[in-house]
Design a protein that fits this description.
Chain A: It comes from Actinomycetospora lemnae. The structure holds 2 protein chains of 2 kinds. By secondary structure, chain A is of the alpha+beta class. Chain A has 9 helices and 22 strands. Chain A has a 6-stranded mixed beta sheet with strand order 7-8-9-3-10-11, with helices on both faces. Chain B is mainly α. Classes of the chains: A alpha+beta, B mainly alpha.
Chain lengths: ~375, ~270
């Protein structure tokens, strides 16, 4: 059974968006793609803000858009919520009245709507800021109020448009954590659009990769990122990802080895998690290195991929070494490659400082 | 060059060529008003501004000014919404027409109204024949003339506010389930309230000072169409003391309106 079933074909500026997307009830699907890949057009079309040339969109059996039959349900009757980069809280209303706005539009009484608003504000951890005006809230607080406001109408589908992109680096993880929690608690059917792979890893069950207006890849998040087949997925998956369970030191892989790192937010021991680090943070050695790096592992070099300024060394598990080495990437300069004199099949050591490894919670 | 205020931001000093014309400009407005105060016959001031004609004119000016402002709000708000939000073809032409009373001499505006609504005019004829209504030289004519000249002030101010606010809040309201009418009532209008208030103040001030269109279209009948500016002009021909005293009353009313709306700090709602 599916909640959202959408097939959209429309021209926008220089490209044609032509995609089919399905989301099951309670599922979170992330649409990943570079700028100009048609992500925003897709969201606008689903929300009823953009008129597509050729589309059929159904949500829970209701037809929202059917260009062939001339059906176009207006945005306010779709029961499709939208949370964008900017919180866009109504400036003349308090945080509470902002959240109560949707329930009031749905015909709830003033008192009931305010009670619902207070409950949602508590969900996002801001019960004490109910009286504040938007101008008196920080960016992160405003976005949390916007999350509460979007969820207060209990939309059948929640659209998230790069919801953390406008927040500063310190505020983003906390807001992401709140969103993950409330989305999971309420079993909210969600379609997330982002260019940040961490958003997808933390929030999404499934991944749809969009490039030039077309779906180039889709599947469970971990699978797509582990075996990227498109150039864009490969680039975003260019981050090194290691799955496992959160532990005090960082993360414990399924085979019991430890990856040292720091948690991006508070994590319970044993909670599903993923360790993320950029290949540029990986140092490559012929011999076991001395000194401070906490994560040192033997690997077998699988491939050398030239990537502009750097050469990417792709690893495979070495006999006797940890299995999570499989697929790891390390970016080094061509000079370093020449100095090391490496070629595929060689046995090497990868080293990563614990401070370079971020441990994020993982959906499921 | 900078000037510092302790505990505050550093204010950039204005270059000197700005100051001279600024002072001259301020003087051009302030000195005549000060001269008015000096020229006033203070011992007889009370008597001069409480003659039956003066009280009639003041009362009529306030009444018609308020009614015209209400009409401007009633008609001008939807007009500004259409100009700012709709995609009607020929919108630039429509906007130019709405701005016409700003550039037209008010007397010309009054004459066009007279030609249209006068007893022999195309619409005035019908009103007379069907309903026995004669518009010109009535208090209604004063209100129509004032609305004609004052409405563009409200429309321009509100359209600017609507364009600055953009449609983003309306989009959010729609995704929260608000019908277009609910979004207009609960989001759009509250968001542009400062523009609405300042536009209304401008319109009221313009209506209060209206002279040309009124005298051409409504005439100069005490108690019916003789507003304060008209009385002041008539008085200035023979009784200068009376004209000056009533001018001062008009200045005070204008200042009260400006101060009252400024101190309400409507711009604080963002």
């Amino acid at each position: 059974m599916t909640a959202l079933e959408a097939r959209v074909r429309t021209r926008r500026g220089g490209f044609t968006l032509d995609v089919a997307v399905e989301v099951a009830p309670g599922e979170v699907v992330a649409v990943l793609g570079p700028n100009g890949s048609g992500k925003s057009t897709l969201l606008g079309t689903l929300a009823g803000l953009d008129a597509p040339e050729d589309a059929r969109i159904t949500l829970g059996g209701r037809v929202l858009t059917d260009t062939a039959a001339g059906v176009a349900v207006p945005a306010h009757r779709r029961r499709v919520g939208l949370l964008s980069q900017q919180a866009l809280l109504f400036p003349h209303l308090s945080a509470r009245d902002n959240v109560a706005f949707g329930p009031r539009c749905a015909g709830r009484g003033r008192r009931a709507a305010r009670a619902a608003a207070d409950a949602r504000l508590a969900d996002v951890g801001l019960p004490e800021l109910a009286e504040r005006r938007p101008a008196e809230l920080s960016g992160g607080q405003a976005q949390r109020v916007a999350i509460a406001r979007a969820l207060a109408v209990e939309p059948e589908l929640l659209l998230l448009d790069e919801p953390f992109a406008a927040l500063d680096v310190d505020a983003a993880p906390a807001v992401r954590s709140v969103l993950r929690r409330v989305v999971r608690q309420t079993g909210q059917t969600t379609l997330l659009v982002t260019h940040d792979v961490v958003d997808a890893v933390v929030l999404a069950d499934r991944l749809v990769v969009l490039a030039d207006g077309e779906v180039v890849e889709h599947g469970p998040t971990a699978e797509v990122l582990a075996r990227p087949r498109s150039a864009f997925a490969a680039r975003i998956a260019g981050l090194d990802l290691v799955g496992g369970a959160a532990s005090a030191a960082g993360l414990t892989t399924s085979e019991g080895t430890t990856v040292h790192g720091r948690a991006s937010e508070e994590l319970a021991d044993g909670e599903p998690a993923v360790a993320v680090f950029p290949p540029s943070a990986v140092a490559v050695h012929r011999k076991h290195p001395e000194g401070s790096p906490r994560n040192v592992l033997p690997v077998r070099l699988a491939a050398l991929e030239p990537r502009g300024e750097v050469v990417r060394l792709r690893a495979a598990a070495a006999p006797g070494g940890p299995g999570w080495a499989e697929g790891l990437a390390a970016d080094v300069t061509p000079a370093a490659v020449a100095e090391l004199g490496v070629e595929p099949g060689d046995e090497l050591w990868f080293a990563v400082k614990a401070t370079e490894v971020a441990v994020h919670p993982r959906r499921r | 060059m900078t000037r510092t205020r302790r505990g505050g931001a550093v204010t950039l000093t204005l270059p000197w060529p700005v100051w001279v014309p600024a002072v001259v400009g301020f003087g051009l407005i302030a000195v005549p008003v000060a001269g008015l105060v000096l020229r006033t016959n203070w011992p007889d001031f009370g008597a001069l501004v409480t003659t039956p004609a003066a009280l009639d004119a003041l009362w009529l000016s306030l009444r018609t000014g308020l009614v015209s402002t209400a009409l401007c709000l009633l008609l001008g708000t939807p007009l500004a919404l259409v100009l700012a939000r709709s995609d009607l073809p020929g919108l630039p032409v429509l906007r130019s027409v709405v701005l016409l009373p700003l550039v037209l001499p008010p007397v010309v505006g009054g004459l066009t109204l007279l030609f249209l609504l006068g007893r022999t005019g195309p619409i005035g004829q019908l009103l007379d024949a069907w309903f026995g209504i004669t518009v010109p030289f009535s208090t209604e004519a004063v209100v129509i003339a004032q609305t004609f000249v004052a409405m563009p002030f409200l429309v321009v101010s509100l359209e600017g506010a609507l364009r600055t606010a953009g449609e983003r809040y309306e989009v959010v309201a729609a995704t929260l389930g608000a019908s277009p009418l609910t979004a207009l009532r609960r989001v759009t209008l509250p968001v542009v309230l400062p523009g609405l208030v300042s536009g209304s103040v401008l319109a009221f001030a313009r209506a209060l000072g209206e002279f040309g269109a009124t005298i051409a279209f409504a005439g100069n009948l005490q108690g019916t169409t003789q507003t304060l500016p008209l009385l002041i002009y008539i008085q200035s021909q023979n009784d200068l003391d009376g004209a000056v005293a009533m001018s001062l009353v008009l200045v005070v009313v204008a200042v009260v309106v400006i101060v009252a709306t400024r101190t309400r700090d409507v711009s604080g709602v963002r």
